[in-house]
Amino acid sequence: MDLTTEYLGLTLANPLVPSASPLSKNTDSVRKLEDAGASAVVMNSLFEEEVRAEDQFMDAYLFNQDIGHLEADSYRPMVDDYQTRIDEYLAQIFSLKQEVDIPVIASLNGITTGGWIEHALELQEAGADALELNVYHVAADMSQSGQDIEQMYLDLLSALREKLRIPMVMKLSPYFSSVANMVTRLEAGGVDGVSLFNRFYQPSIDIETREVSPELHLSSSQESLLAMRWIAILSGRVNITLAATGGIHKSEDVIRLLMAGADVTHMCSALLINGPEYLASVLKEVAEWLEENEYESVRQLKGCTSQRHAVDPVSYERSNYMQVLNSYKA
Ligand SMILES: Cc1cc2nc3c(=O)[nH]c(=O)nc-3n(C[C@H](O)[C@H](O)[C@H](O)COP(=O)(O)O)c2cc1C
After folding, report:
1. Is the CB of 224 under 6 A from ligand 1?
2. Residues with Cβ < 8 Å from 119, sequence gap 6 or more?
3. 5 CB under 6 A from ligand 1?
C-alpha cells in the first residue's frame, strides 16, 4: 500500500502528522511518535509574547550595562551565559533533527510584524524543515474591520516570506467572513499550505469567585467535520497543501478528511489521551481500510469526495441546511 503524501513540497511516508502539542517538547516522545509511524512532527510553538518579552529584557539589560558603573561590571553575569527561550527553542530543533529522521516543522505563534519575526530566520538556520505559523488572534478591537484583520495575516506572511526559503504553512481560524477567499489570497501571498483550523479555547467564568478562567478541553471526533467541509470546498481549487487539524481521533476521521482532499491529517488530543503509540493503530486501520476498499494509494483516495468530485456538491453548502434540520427525529 502506498501511503505517501505530499506536504509543503516534502514527500511524507503517510498522512499522519502530530500537530503542535506538549508531546513535541520532549525528544523521547517525538521518538515514540516516529516509532509509531508519524511521518513528520510539528513542534510546540514559540510565542510572540515570549520573544518580545525576552527581546525587551535583553535591550534593557544591555542598555543598563552601557550606563552602569565600570567597577560593577565584573559582578554582572555575562550576557552569553543567559539562556533565552529562543536559545532553548533552537536547541530543541537541533536536538530533534539529530534524534529523529522525520521532518521537523517549527511553529511560530503570533500576529504582528514587529522585530520578533527576525527570529524566524534562526529557526530555519537551526534546521527546521518548514515553518507553521499559528495566527491566534481574537478580533476584539471594535475599531478594526475584517479587512484590517485579513491584512494583518497577509502582512505577516509577506514579512516572513521575504526572509525564509523553507516552506510555510499558516494555521488559520475558521472565523473569516470568507475562508475560501482568504485562502486564495494567502496562496497569492506565497504561502505553501494552510492548516484548517486552529482551535480557539474559550474562557469560562467561575460562578463562585466570578473570575474569568481559561479552560482547556480536548477535542472530540465530531469537531473534524468543520475542517472536512472547508477542505472539500478548497480541494482542487488551490495549489497549496491542505492540512486538516481539529477533532481527528480515529481512522474514520483520517479517511474522511483524505476523501475531502486533505494532504495530511494532524492529531493532538487523541495522542494526548491515548499516548504516542496510538498513532500506530490509526495508521494500521487506515492502511487496512484502503486495502479492503481496493485502493492502491493514499493519492488515489485524496479528494475523491471533494466538492468538485462529490455526487452532490451542494451538500457542502447551505442548500442542505433545511434537510439537515428536518432530519431531526424527536
Ligand atoms: C495541551 C495543548 C497544547 C497545544 N500547544 C499548541 C502550540 O504550542 N501551538 C499550536 O499551534 N497549537 C497548539 N495546540 C493545538 C493543537 O496543535 C491542535 O491544533 C488542536 O488541539 C486541535 O487538534 P486536536 O483536536 O487533534 O486536539 C495545543 C493543543 C493542546 C491540547
Report:
1. no
2. 46, 51, 86
3. no
Among residues 292, 278, 210, 314, the alpha carbon closest in space to that of 21 is found at 278
Q: What angle do CA 160, 245, 107 make, to 5 degrees?
A: 30
Which helix (H) or strand (E) segment holds residue 171: the answer is strand 168-172
Neighbours of 78 (CB within 10 A): 8
Cα angle 302-174-235, degrees, rounded to a multiple of 5 = 20
Atom of ligand 1 nearest to the CA of 247: 25
> Among 268, 269, 282, which residue has the most ligand 1 atoms within 8 Å of its CB, making it the best to mutate?
268
Q: How many C-beta atoms lie closer than 10 Å to residue 32's C-beta?
A: 18
Measured by CA distance, the residue closest to atom 30 of ligand 1 is 21
Enter the pTM of the model: 0.90
Q: At 251, list the grid cell.
A: 481512522
Q: Measured between alpha carbons, how far is 191 from 185 in angstroms, rounded to an integer? A: 9
Question: CATH 2.40.30.10: does it fit domain 5-326?
Answer: no
C-alpha cell at 254: 483520517
Q: Residues 282, 16: contact at Cβ < 8 Å?
A: yes
106 forms beta bridges with 131
Q: Whose CA is nearest to atom 22 of ligand 1?
A: 246
Task: Return the domain boundaries, the chain.
Answer: 5-326
Q: Can you name the residues that pair with 105 across neighbouring β-strands?
A: 42, 130
Give the residue, by CA position, lying nearest to ligand 1 atom 3.
21
**Per-residue pLDDT reduced to its tens digit, 30-89:** 999 999 999 999 999 998 888 777 666 666 655 565 556 555 555 555 555 567 889 999
Sign of CA dihedral 167, 107, 273, 211: negative
From the CB of 256, is ligand 1 less than 6 Å away? no
